[in-house]
Amino acid sequence: MPPATSSPTAQRHVGFSRRTQAPFQLNESSPQLHDDSPPAKKYRLMSDIMARAQYAVVERETYSDLLCEQCGSGELSDELLLCDKCDRGFHMKCVRPIVVRIPIGSWLCPKCQGGKRVRSFSQKRIIDFFGIRRSYFYADDKSSSQDAKKRRKRSRPLVLHKKKRRLLPFVPTKDPAQRLKQMGSLATALTALNIEFCDHLTYLPGMAPRSANRAELENGDMQILSKEDLETVEHCIAMSKRGEFPPFMVVYDSCQGYTVEADDLIKDMTIVAEYTGDVDYLHNRERDDCDSMMTLLLGRESCQSLVICADKRGNIARFISGINNHTQEGRKKRNCKCVRYNVGGECRVFLVATRDISKGERLYYDYNGYEYHYPTHHFV
């Protein structure tokens, strides 16, 4: 958290120490030694006690000499974060992963955090977390073989009409145990950030109503989803409801935070995910420092523009990283794109693969599309 000025009321009671007498040593000839005497107390090591003890925040008298541990500069004091445990300072853009907004409550530097605690999810909890019916998840392979036939049948026109490229449905992992592992990684990341899983757009009171999401108000470039592509989208939604998600793993990186890796080959033009979350007006979020907003509608008037906010509800699209589009090396990492579609008169946002993505490769897309309005200098 940012440096705070000290005050008498800010002082906290750290604790007190009490002197204890050395335990009385009894020898064999001592009359006080009996067979039924209670065993001697065992004391834990001080190192074990300190490792588990809660830390206390002690305020300094002044923070004028506070420097960033990474760059060694004391400039931009409004961006300096103070670790509540070691009392060292870090710039928000110097710490890894980068902190995009001032944390609420206590904040620990990466060294004091000691690594992220991975929360394990049982098979039942994973299925309940995503709201999947057990009969769907443990269905036999007949449905998957039928889906494969539909995909082959749907993909045939691609050979005849190369100029008119169609969206492809994702191919879920066949092994149910591996699918559970993939879903567990997503559940762990969402739980760590206190985000509720949501695979569709949500409209809440106090934000933008669903009636405001009208594609006819769009003033920019929005594609119209064809009938064939709409069938592909509906097919992907049906698979997700059965617990058949795209083959992705959410992993934690000390530099980038939570990122997404392909757990199998992803073909070019495959639907990666729909960007979901709470829909709100752009003017309500102009001063919001949320790092997970996506443009949904660019209205002819500013009061009509809508954004998707994935800070409270969202899916795996929330963890796909952005690239540094100011460098050639960063642009080479881009393997998917963000596309806004008119779906039945409403605006929807989808992430689509722009080339074949190999297993183990991380997913990156450009937040700006083909423009450079959003600052991405600090991205990878």
The secondary-structure class comes to: alpha/beta
The proportion of residues in beta strands is: 15-25%
**Strand line-up of the largest beta sheet:** 4-13-14-7
Helical percentage? 10-25%
- Count of alpha and pi helical runs: 9
Fourth-tier CATH superfamily name of the domain at 123-131 and 166-365? SET domain
Low-pLDDT residue spans: 1-24, 156-162
Q: Just give the CATH class of the domain at 123-131 and 166-365.
A: Mainly Beta
User: What is Rg?
Assistant: 27 Å
The H/E string reads: HEEHHHHHHEEHEEEEEEEEHEEE
Within the CATH hierarchy, at the fold level, what is the topology of the domain at 123-131 and 166-365? Beta-clip-like
Sheet with the most strands? 4 strands, mixed
Note the gap between the termini.
25 Å
| Strand runs, count | 15
The residue-averaged pLDDT reads: 78
Q: Quick one: overall form?
A: globular
The CATH architecture of the domain at 123-131 and 166-365: Beta Complex
Explained architecture:
- This protein is an alpha/beta fold and 380 residues long.
- Among the domains are: 51 residues, Herpes Virus-1 (2-Layer Sandwich), CATH 3.30.40; 209 residues, Beta-clip-like.
- The protein is built from nine helices and 15 strands.
- It has a four-stranded mixed β-sheet with strand order 4-13-14-7, covered by helices on one side. It has a three-stranded antiparallel β-sheet with strand order 8-10-9, with no helix packed on it. Strands 1-2 form a two-stranded antiparallel ribbon.
- Strand 1 and strand 2 form a beta hairpin.
- Helix 3 crosses helix 7.
- The protein is globular and about 80 Å long.
- The N terminus is likely disordered.
- It catalyses: L-lysyl(27)-[histone H3] + S-adenosyl-L-methionine = N(6)-methyl-L-lysyl(27)-[histone H3] + S-adenosyl-L-homocysteine + H(+).
- GO terms for molecular function: histone H3K27 monomethyltransferase activity; zinc ion binding.
- Its EC number is 2.1.1.369.
